[in-house]
# Entry
Amino acid sequence: MAMEKQNQEPRIGFYVCHCGTNIAGMVDCAEVAHHVGTLPNVVMSKDYKYMCSDPGQELIQKDIAAHGLNRVVVASCSPLLHEHTFRGAVEKGGLNPFFFHMVNIREHDSWVHTDRQEATEKAKALAQAAIGRVAHHKALETKRVDINPTTLVVGAGIAGIHTAMTIANAGKQVVLVEREPTIGGHMAKFDKTFPTLDCAACILTPKMSAAGAHENIRLLSYSEVTKVDGFVGNYKVTIKRKPRYIDEEACIGCQDCIPACVFKTPKFADEFNEGLGKRRPVYIPFPQATPQIVAIDPNVCLNFKKGENGDRVVSDKCKKTCVEACGDKDAIDFTQTERFEEIEVGAIVVATGFQTYDATRSPSYGYGRYDNVYTALEIERLVNASGPTGGHVVMRDGKSEPKSVGIIHCVGSRDKKTNAWCSRVCCMYSMKLAHLLKEHTNAEIYNFYIDVRTPGKGYEEFYGKLLEEGVHFIRGRVGEVTDWAMTPEEEGKLVIRVEDTLAGMVRRIPVDMVVLATGLEPQKDAQDVRRLFNMSCGSEGFFLERHPKLAPVNTFSDGIYIAGACQGPKDIPDTVAQAGAAAAEVLALIDKGYVEQEPNTAFILEDECSGCKSCIPLCPYTAILFDEKTDKAWINEALCKGCGTCVGSCPSGSIVQNLFEDQEIFSEIEGVLAYD
Amino acid sequence: MRYGYFPGCSLKGTGRAYEESLLPVMQHLGVEMVELDDWSCCGATAYMAVDEGKACALAARNLALAEQGGFAQVMAPCSACYLVLNKTQHFMQDYPAMRRLVDKALGSVGLKVSNDTPVRHPLDILLNDVGLDAVKQKVTRPLKGLKVAPYYGCQIVRPYSTFDDQADPVSMDQLLQALGAEVIDWPLKTKCCGGSLTGTLPEAGLRLSYILLKEAKKRGADLIATVCPLCQFNLDGYHDKIEAKWEPVRVPTVYFSQLMGLAFGMPANRLGLQRGFIPMPSLPRAEAVAA
# Structure
């Protein structure tokens, strides 16, 4: 039936919508309808108050039958809002939905103009263009593509873990990839969580082990995604399994190898404890690490040496007491190398988290110059019972407790010279650390803040509690931290110079310990990850959501979602909420079983393609492939997003795009130009 | 490497030791400094505070002369000149009204300024045009064992910081290390020396100079190296008053260029070192190394 209509003379029905007063307030809709009614091929032309309403849609359906319409144009709002609605109405009326075209006379006209006469003329011109184009529309079919029900979750901090668990609990398969030897992310390093002061490990580690043991989750730790091909529903992902020199199946997590190492005392900076503690070359990051599998660091293990191109190769020089201790389990395997594994998934959730601001970038705060200037993350480990000092707060000399501590807020946040944004969590974690430090040492604690920001459930009350505990709050951005003493009391102390903007004076506060509340920023390889998954980044480098309010976990690539702090700084409650939202989006996608694809894709006229390949590198979606047999390019419709870049670039004019064929576009242009 | 040299008043007067040392040192490194013909007052910080328009017009006059002389870049060794010339360029760019005012003023004497001649500080030129390797090659008498507190003052890094960190500048540290000196790490690199307050409000200004000298001495500095004629003047010229009010803090303050000259083997009296109130130590340790 559709093909039949296509070959007939066009019989166009035109409707102009008042949208209440949104359009009619600035455009004379009756005049527009009258003008369009005089154009060739237009069989009927009407104005109506709300075209998107049920009666409006029924009007279209009735007219199709009554007037034998085979093309429909509606002049109303943005196609983003109601193109789908009107296509549906046209389809119900018995026409192919792509015999419809929409004209935007609201956002593009009535809302942005102040002269009624001119706005009306513009509406007429736009409508005339649409009438010209719609005559050339062809019947098109939307395609359905099946969806692979397995999901890849990248990053296993609290965001990735929660997403994976939610999807897995719904009975779907998840591959959870984490680049560190253990899952848990930043949250695993925290001592307590604000504002409830419940222990981070107590609430996180059960989730970690549940994720590790879940029948529907395949956990790939110490692994990284290196390549992503395909499209929504059908992604092919390559994963690099980094060698941990341990057979993951054979290791039972007994950790007998660790004390057996030839290094009798731990000697190397322990990443999990922010370098405050030491570990051996064979190690497990922390007691509740998941998976419970040790790893060997080839950069410091004596059984490795530097190879020709700088990588570490096995030297077989060590006595290998670890292998002896492992015994029959025989889990230690020095011959392991990088392995690459390809998996197929239908949806991907990127939950790669954040990094903290590098405090050495703010030299006036003395991090790296003065021993007793710490980052907040270091303090998290220092107050933690499983941290390097067993929870005993001592300074870098290893014995003295601080009697006074200054906590400097907004280090690497709200500062045009470093990061302009507010990192959202620092005020709260600073107050949490103030509370914990006071609890551990009874020191005098000073918080230096620009504004105290507490927008969360129970957060402002927590601030009130801190004030009652006698923690000092000084409003002012700290100028510098120095060891420059001007009085005997300041000798041997770190002196914080700050303009106290409430007291209206410059103050010098001598303290034993300084804590820098470093902000959250994108991971240093966020741009690489963005390219890998074909996402966008905002100007600050966090991954960009499709819509800041209405599509917060979607990206511009269908089937790829984001969750947690990789999208922007957020606390644990918000991260978990977003992780749940991403899981729901994934389940909605894979439960449907298929995706419908807009037919506005490009295709290549094979006979005319010269095989020059100039279109291939231009495609932002890598949808164009080259067939070596025929020596022609071809377009994977499932990947094509209809951007038109290749169409314009093709030297032989052999690429055509549905709904944007030359005739359609030229007629549209002629329609506007013909109007005067 | 050829630069239009804008000396400003200090380098011809109280800060002449700066010019006396900078000229031979730069020449030794193959840097050509051609003094601008008929240069005038830079506009100076004090004038800037009284009447920005006139100060900018004065500064722009010198920039116009540099353009007229065909210089691609201007070298301004005095911190105040460096700041005012840079500030004038920023003001002309950011405020069309200021641009019109300056154009009108210069037009009345037949001058024009296109405002695209970079104004550079000698430290910037030494690090980024000459390069520390070239400097090191010229060192014949390394300043081994000499403990130097690098003191930058405020004006070359604030408010504009074109070649160094605003809070923790390091360019002079690197230069002094290239000369073989031991650089004292101290947090007062850009603290106020007292500026013109030592003249107008001595009780405030002197205290600031005293703080700097005291801290340099406390940290074991043999001397302070500076880039600014006013800083040098303040830290060198008021020791009697400081001593009467507080305590003796007799640390000499010299220009970085004088230390460069010494390291290049030039005689002290050809570098203006005899002009300081607090005499420069005769560098026994440094000379011992050379011998």
